[in-house]
Amino acid sequence: MASQVVQFAGLSDRDRKKVSPLPELAEGDHVELHVRRRDGKEQTLSLPPAAVSAVETLLTRLLSGKRVAMLTEDQELSPTDAAAILGISRPLVVHRMDIGELPFRYVGKHRRASLGDVLALKDKLDTRQKAMDALAEDTEDLIANHGL
Fold first, then answer.
1. Degrees (nearest 5) of the Cα angle 94, 97, 102?
2. How many whole angstroms separate alpha carbon 118 and alpha carbon 90?
3. Which of 12, 38, 46, 85 is the most buried (most CB within 10 A)?
4. Pick from 77, 87, 60: nearest CA to 5
5. Is residue 46 packed enough to be buried (19+ CB in 10 Å), middle (13-18) or exposed (0-12)?
6. What is the mean pLDDT for each group of 10 consecutive residues in the chain (148 residues)?
7. Residue 19, CA distances (Å) to 14, 15, 68, 94 in order
8. CA–CA separation, 67 and 10 (whole Å)
């Protein structure tokens, strides 16, 4: 059964050529979204600064040819979806759930973890990986420059 939790969207090459990036925004700039409906009616929505930042990031990624997915922090993910975000295998995600590194709950027989918990684990794993990379770099330096 395919998961529908994480759905990616992207722009075609033709659409990317039609859309121009947002201009550089300065402190205090105000951004509005103009909607023109099929019946000709128009509506203007004022975007708060946090939404502007999200829209700016979304457009930047889409215009660079990347596919994006929007998720909420409290959204629940299957182990398969969590594995995709963490960049590890599904069995390793289940193991991390079993040993308590990734909180989860059962929905029937199925495990579910919140996106917030998955991202917290990702941050922990990324920090650990950076430390291991720095240690490996130091080791290579010791071998190359000090003959150890």
1. 125
2. 13
3. 85
4. 77
5. exposed
6. 62 86 82 91 90 86 87 88 93 97 96 95 94 93 85
7. 9, 6, 16, 42
8. 4
Query: Domains plus CATH for the chain?
Result: 13-63 (no CATH), 76-146 (1.10.1660)
pTM exceeds 0.70 for this model = no
Q: What 3-state DSSP class applies to 68?
A: strand
Distances (CA, A) of 91 to 20, 59, 128, 134, 135: 43, 34, 20, 28, 28
The rounded distance, in Å, linking the Cα atoms of 77 and 116 is: 10
Q: What's the Cα-to-Cα distance from 116 to each of 22, 113, 136, rounded to whole Å?
A: 29, 8, 30
CA distances from 127 to 22, 39, 95, 100, 131 (A): 33, 52, 20, 19, 6
9: left (phi over 0), alpha (psi -120 to 50) or beta: beta
User: What is the C-alpha to C-alpha distance for residues 54 and 62, in angstroms, rounded to an integer?
Assistant: 12
Q: Which amino acid is at 118?
A: V
